[in-house]
Amino acid sequence: MPSYTAPVKDMQFILHDVLDVAGQDIPGYDELDRDFTGAVIEEAGKLASEVLMPLNSVGDQQGCVLENGVVRTPDGFKEAFEMMKEGGWTALDCDPEYGGQGLPYLMHTAAQEPFVSANMAFNMYQGLTHGAYSAIYFHGSDEQKQTYLPKMTTCEWTGTMNLTEPHCGTDLGLMRTKAVPQDDSSYKISGQKIFISAGDHDMAENVIHLVLAKIPGGPDGIKGVSLFIVPKFIVKEDGSLGERNGVSVGKLEEKMGIHGNATCVMNYDDATGYLVGEMHKGMRAMFTMMNEARLGVGLQGYAQAEVAYQNAVAYANDRLQGRDVTGAKAPEKSADPIIVHPDIRRNLMDQKSFTEGARAFTYWGAYLIDRAHKNSDADADGLISLLTPIIKGFQTDKGFEMAVNAQQVYGGHGYIEEWGMSQFARDARIAMIYEGANGIQALDLVGRKLAQDGGKHVMAFFDMIKTFASETKGQDEAFDRDFLEPLKAASKDLQAAAMYFMQNGMKNPNNALAGSYDFMHMFGHVCLGYMWARMGLAASKALKDGASDTEFYETKLATGRYYMARQLPATKMHLARIETGAEPVMALEAANF
Amino acid sequence: MPSYTAPVKDMQFILHDVLDVAGQDIPGYDELDRDFTGAVIEEAGKLASEVLMPLNSVGDQQGCVLENGVVRTPDGFKEAFEMMKEGGWTALDCDPEYGGQGLPYLMHTAAQEPFVSANMAFNMYQGLTHGAYSAIYFHGSDEQKQTYLPKMTTCEWTGTMNLTEPHCGTDLGLMRTKAVPQDDSSYKISGQKIFISAGDHDMAENVIHLVLAKIPGGPDGIKGVSLFIVPKFIVKEDGSLGERNGVSVGKLEEKMGIHGNATCVMNYDDATGYLVGEMHKGMRAMFTMMNEARLGVGLQGYAQAEVAYQNAVAYANDRLQGRDVTGAKAPEKSADPIIVHPDIRRNLMDQKSFTEGARAFTYWGAYLIDRAHKNSDADADGLISLLTPIIKGFQTDKGFEMAVNAQQVYGGHGYIEEWGMSQFARDARIAMIYEGANGIQALDLVGRKLAQDGGKHVMAFFDMIKTFASETKGQDEAFDRDFLEPLKAASKDLQAAAMYFMQNGMKNPNNALAGSYDFMHMFGHVCLGYMWARMGLAASKALKDGASDTEFYETKLATGRYYMARQLPATKMHLARIETGAEPVMALEAANF
């Protein structure tokens, strides 16, 4: 059976050596000293390893069951959920006014990682609740906040997000769910929503659905969409639960993975709903949550890769097969552990260098979100807005790829469910799809974010890399050669691609859109390259400062060198593809596929 | 529910326009005229579409069941298997002396493709039988051939291959299964074998297990391994079935995919076995079959991609979402079909250009096997020996990747089992693992095949590309620019990588082995590039010759241009990785992963 240990040291390295969180001028960051963050992550890791990880395969095997309209979660989920609530893990960054702990979003992100690694399906119940909390917190009325949020921070009530309908996912303008105004200022909601994660279950007293719907007579398309609170049980004025609302589970989907999470078809039949924010401005509420939600999904990408990697390393050290070609490493055994073989190394180094780079990227993203929100920093806001589709799209593609690679280390055993590696790959697969499929992330990046505010944010990104390189250059020859030069070359490729889009996208937008996916990936590599350069710098500094754990820092440097040498060359390939433009991509008539 | 139509026209194009099979001086090829091959493929395609495809999801959902020691296959499998037998599909290329039809291996390969696309798990029952047939045919005694082969060509008896044990897969020298000689020249076989595909089932009267085992007192390691026939029921002298042999199913594995095929733990307890070929020369018998078996797995890679692609195209034409950015394509509808969007195109073109290129590569490989066997052509034998790990490793990696991409086209529906796209990805996944995991293919390529016969075959490959380019150059400017130039550039990268290995592998073999996986992939791209150049040439010729179906040939040219422009640039990335050598890959101590 797979196991998991939170990589506390790696996480602390990013928080303190790289991001220097305690030294940042962001409200709440002064609390984040090394001891505090270490204690929080240790505790989260303990819960993850001891409680959530053993339930991961239980959830996969049992799945959720719909019986007489009620969803039953797998054995042990309810007890584990109680432990999450009791430990206060469900609202680390929520407003203390509603029972949260008021910590930075970055701390929430770091604490979530072990839960996601250990049991992604389980953790989604609270993850969705957090999203629903944010929607109400940022857009609801005071009364709505008072009514719902105190119960949602504790996960006594959980939340869901209802966007997709059978005929519309990406294109929400096609939405059919209706919201008819009532005399008491409530609405009657009718329609069907699909793919509703955590749509119903037996671990909470109430489920607060956030539902997008159209009020008749409003504008056509996406501009006529409004957001509603639709509780499973109506909340009475005294806060107690009243009658069952007109919302029911039509079906539980059988999925490739995340079996422990109930993916529901939700039927709304004249269900009572309450408008959140302004009429017809539902998408605005969605968009403000999107950076956080997408960063959370990007985290799922590398968090699944992390747990898969840990188990692949264990197997590679354990499995005896063949001999080191340069001479037996374990002559006393029947064969050497397979970790001696270069191609196993190549595979594990790909995983390790991605996962650590993506963790740094994600934490940096969370830091930017804090800076944007808590310091009202418009530059940070613009930058994270640019980077969000990359965190989501690139990291979930690569996270799945790495989970598949980890499975490959197991050979035939990787394909057998009992060994657990298949589940990591199957679970990781969904992250490429939900919260905006990765093609949509690429479209968002190239079609929207690049040109946002006159292209200001992407130029700021390039300036940042340039400044970083010029400020750090010349202090250490090896660092310059192994980290700065590859980063500069990759960044140059990225700039060339952006330039290609500018010069050719005006003539025909397909010249840009045909390269959007490649651009997302090359941007991802540049970001991880930047992260590795910052990590390499921090590790060099620690070594120069005489840190005692030289092996840890040397390992960081070697892992970073690997990423720069073996992953960054991908940018050249992506650039070459991009520069072929729209023609090869769009040449065929639809009928000739 | 997914559907499948055999791409008969594409297959015929390769057989006739590209390979000109009827014009080849290979015994049996003169029969392969356009009408004959067309009729065979049409019929295979019909059986695949109408019978096997509907059973694909049945097999996935029901799986095989072990009850009281007997394996029950999914509903409908037995009837479908009878149809396969009755249609004579199980022995197209087998020796007529034993009931086969004596057709070229290439014809067998082409006819298998639709079965593999439509139902990979089902088709493995006969696929494994074919492998066992070959082992006995090439290495068994006349008596063994007379006893077993006539029932195996008809699949009245099916076959299995027993290599792996719990503690050894790749490193078969560690094998523990014992074969103790008996007075009557038979052996008593004892031990446990795992991952035995089609190990037992209810569709045949007998199962003929081919089992690797060690005769006590023989050489250590791989040199002491012998091959045995171990029938489930002992065959009496009159050919009728006698008593049950000491072989039983210990367990059925729960797997990520190919649920319709019974993957068994087989226990041998003093089972009666008969030596095949010479004592201690069991691996030789295995190796002679390997080219065929690995080509068959490489076919599985692209055949799963093909069926996934067909369904992705159908969905992309059907699903309405968003508008073409250059102007609505279906203004009368609520939205345009998603096939208008460039990133959907990019995804579909990746799939299409890979699948068609891989089909050509596989058929060419089968042609080389025929030439090697039937014409005793040592050059063809050397070339296919070199290319086999690439057909297997590259095509199954890419085949899985493309099945995942096809699943992505479906958005959320791709993750729901009901839609069938998940199964294609899950089934395709195994092909990267079995018949030698892909890392082992890369090792075989770089560690063995490159240097085979003094590097003669890889040099012959480069010469072949060079000759092809110089012979075709200058006739058509567009062809030179779009096909030949990219091919030459990619081939140059591949040569540079081979050169790097030669120059640096002597100092430290890890300099070569650390780049083996990248080399396998870049070699795959060059081979598909070569295939596309040949297909492009054939399409140009057909157009010049006034072929009536211009759209078909124009589509070939456009698809080929896409592969050359958008896939071949990968060789530069692989070369850059390879040239970083062993250092980044091997830098860490095992304890620091």
TrEMBL record, chains A, B:
Q: Which GO terms describe its molecular function?
A: flavin adenine dinucleotide binding; oxidoreductase activity, acting on the CH-CH group of donors
Q: Name one Pfam family in it.
A: Acyl-CoA_dh_N
Cofactor(s) the protein needs: FAD
Reactions catalysed, semicolon-separated, are:
3-(methylsulfanyl)propanoyl-CoA + oxidized [electron-transfer flavoprotein] + H(+) = 3-(methylsulfanyl)acryloyl-CoA + reduced [electron-transfer flavoprotein]
Where in this chain does the record put each Acyl-CoA oxidase/dehydrogenase middle domain? 161-270
Write down the top EC class of this protein: oxidoreductase
Question: What InterPro entries does the database record attribute to this sequence?
Answer: Acyl-CoA_dh-like_C_dom, Acyl-CoA_Oxase/DH_mid-dom, Acyl-CoA_Oxase/DH_mid-dom_sf, AcylCo_DH-like_C, AcylCo_DH/oxidase_C, AcylCoA_DH/ox_N, AcylCoA_DH/ox_N_sf, AcylCoA_DH/oxidase_NM_dom_sf
**What is this protein for, i.e. what is its function?**
Involved in the assimilation of dimethylsulphoniopropionate (DMSP), an important compound in the fixation of carbon in marine phytoplankton, by mediating the conversion of 3-(methylthio)propanoyl-CoA (MMPA-CoA) to 3-(methylthio)acryloyl-CoA (MTA-CoA).
Enzyme Commission number(s): 1.3.99.41
Q: Where is the Acyl-CoA dehydrogenase/oxidase N-terminal domain?
A: 78-155
Entry protein name: 3-methylmercaptopropionyl-CoA dehydrogenase
Question: Residues in domain Acetyl-CoA dehydrogenase-like C-terminal?
Answer: 461-588
Q: What family is it from?
A: Belongs to the acyl-CoA dehydrogenase family.
What Gene3D superfamilies does this protein map onto? Acyl-CoA dehydrogenase/oxidase, N-terminal domain, Butyryl-CoA Dehydrogenase, subunit A, domain 2, Butyryl-CoA Dehydrogenase, subunit A, domain 3
Domain spans labelled Acyl-CoA dehydrogenase/oxidase C-terminal: 281-445
* Native organism taxonomy: Bacteria, Pseudomonadati, Pseudomonadota, Alphaproteobacteria, Rhodobacterales
Q: Which organism is it from?
A: Marivita hallyeonensis
Keywords for the protein's UniProt record, in alphabetical order: FAD, Flavoprotein, Oxidoreductase
